[in-house]
Amino acid sequence: MHTQNLINIIADQLPELNKSESKVAQVILADPDRATSSSIAALAKAAGVSEPSVNRFCKRFNAAGFPDFKLKLAKALVSGVRFVNRNVDPEDDVSSYTPKIFDSTINNLAMVRDRISHSIVNQVVDKLIQAKRIYFFGLGASGSVARDAENKFFRFNLPVSFHDDVLMQRMLASTGGTGDVFFFISHTGRTKEVVEVAEIAKANGSTVIGLTAPDSPLASISSVTLEVEVPENTDEYMPMTSRIVHLVILDVLATGVTLRRGPDFLPHLEKIKNSLKSTRYIKDS
Amino acid sequence: MHTQNLINIIADQLPELNKSESKVAQVILADPDRATSSSIAALAKAAGVSEPSVNRFCKRFNAAGFPDFKLKLAKALVSGVRFVNRNVDPEDDVSSYTPKIFDSTINNLAMVRDRISHSIVNQVVDKLIQAKRIYFFGLGASGSVARDAENKFFRFNLPVSFHDDVLMQRMLASTGGTGDVFFFISHTGRTKEVVEVAEIAKANGSTVIGLTAPDSPLASISSVTLEVEVPENTDEYMPMTSRIVHLVILDVLATGVTLRRGPDFLPHLEKIKNSLKSTRYIKDS
DNA sequence: CATCTTTATGAAATTTTCTTACAAATTTGC
DNA sequence: GCAAATTTGTAAGAAAATTTCATAAAGATG
């Protein structure tokens, strides 16, 4: 499991801190970048606590002392993951909402990165490699993800297709059988049409893979489920980030397949890349 | 343009440093990680120079002093490790390549987050709000992005469509005119078909927006360009992350449009959300 | 090659920053 | 309501960093 980001660790621990430690935490979380460049005295003053309290705070988070803590904080900031709960609000202008949306996406990715089951990724790669045919199915926003997956997996010389048409999906599911892989992408895992099609595929002996929410009907039907838990979209203004997480997971799967294929396969990928060259204007410089 | 890594800067400057500064540089380059956690005294001793020499060295590299220098060095190390040493290599297993792919995506997002021009985002939001019609065009992987954009902007009650068919694109571009917005998505900005269609759109008086690489043919044609610079995909195994960056930028634009529409518009979004409810299995719990 | 000028360097003092020890205050358990 | 445990701050002192200034080295000039 990936080491959690210091900032998130602090945020997580927040409720368990005592009064002065929590004051320190709040000041740091409010502007971590500033914290890295202030002295212990300045930070103590900003938090309204004594210097030793700040020092104790640092030690609580496994730092040798304040300077060491600052160093760790600085590193945590670079890794790009910032503090979570920054919702877009109606008063925001471009320079507020733009980073907020990036940050929220980044945070969700970091969360899934730390939680995704590697053994399940491996199982799915197995299934994909052994597949006689692969179908990527999704509706609405997940349709775009499915389409992207087709574009990606097509390069592996696998018989792959994507469908965002429910009737098409239904027909294909009912004509499939052993060796066929039906890969369902769904944010909620509760869309009736999707679940029904998955049931049909399953009934015909095909392998059903779900890239979806845990504890959903789709998850329970799937032969293997890649569980993605992205916080519900409570804020009206926040975009749905699950699509993006799904895309990255498909990137991971594609990489898994490439690696499993071994180095002999690279020339094939190169060939596909080159086939596009003639469609482009040459880069000067 | 990517800011040069501090370590590389030091290495580059090496020949121009004087005797004691160069000693300091060598010690730091030999073990930069150690340098971040040693005191000025320790480093001075290791380099066989005086403490002020180390201090002067730090100031030479635009640091406020030694502690500030250590901070910058620490940051450089983190980003260095991620960019240089985090490529997927053929020996990787699931638990290595999975976080690597997430990290590389996260890094690219963080980079664009810090570099994207807010004023251009604003300009694009303006154009989208005023548009009589919006067309999202993309080919290949960018086609999926365009499709996702349609799905997203459709909710704004704007006449929007997406096309990944070159002939369709061509026809629409030539029938468009003032008030129409053609939004082109392209990783390279050099695909001939895309550039040609953009030229046609432009010639007919439509607004052309490019979500693409800077200094590309597409960028130079566009009325407004959202420049996205994602490091070239040199590693055979690394997936292309520009798609994901593009999606997030479209999320930003959509948020901008929602905010500009004001709170009166929220019921409309709510209505669309609700329209999907009946298609889902209810969540128990 | 002597002398002046510039530049580089370090010793020591000063200042800033951090840590520790301990006592006061607060909370908790009984 | 009192003792123990925990939390917090004061103040001292230790450590680290910076500045000042003197000296040494290198370079320029006649």
3D structure, described in words:
The structure is a homodimer of 285-residue chains. By secondary structure, chain A is an alpha/beta fold. Chain A folds into two domains: 6-78, Orthogonal Bundle (Arc Repressor Mutant, subunit A); 117-274, 3-Layer(aba) Sandwich (Rossmann fold). Chain A is built from 14 helices and five strands. In chain A, strands 2-1-3-4-5 form a five-stranded parallel beta sheet, with helices on both faces. In chain A, helix 10 packs parallel to helix 11. The longest helix of chain A has 22 residues, at 94-115. In chain A, 47% of the residues are buried. The mean pLDDT of chain A is 85. Chains A and B meet through helix 6, helix 7, helix 8, helix 9 and helix 11 of A and helix 6, helix 7, helix 8, helix 9 and helix 11 of B. Chain B binds a DNA duplex (30 and 30 nucleotides) through residues 18-21, 39-41, 49-56, 65-67.
Stretches of chain A where pLDDT falls below 50 for ≥5 residues?
none
Major sheet details of chain A: 5 strands, parallel
CATH fourth-tier homologous superfamily of the largest domain in chain A: Glucose-6-phosphate isomerase like protein, domain 1
- Number of discrete domains of chain A: 2
CATH class of the largest domain in chain A: Alpha Beta
Please give the radius of gyration of chain A in angstroms.
Answer: 24 Å
Looking at the overall shape, the CATH architecture of the largest domain in chain A is 3-Layer(aba) Sandwich
Structural class of chain A: alpha/beta
Determine the CATH topology of the largest domain in chain A.
Rossmann fold
Mean pLDDT reading of chain A: 85
Helices and strands of chain A, in N-to-C order?
HHHHHHHHEHEHEHEHEHH
**SS strand fraction of chain A:** 5-15%
Helical amount among residues of chain A, as a percent range? 55-70%
The greatest inter-chain interface is formed by:
A-B, 81 and 79 residues
How are the strands of the largest sheet of chain A arranged?
2-1-3-4-5
- State the total count of DSSP E strands of chain A: 5
Assembly of the depicted chains: homodimer
Query: How does the overall form of chain A come out from the CA principal axes?
Result: elongated
End-to-end Cα distance of chain A: 43 Å
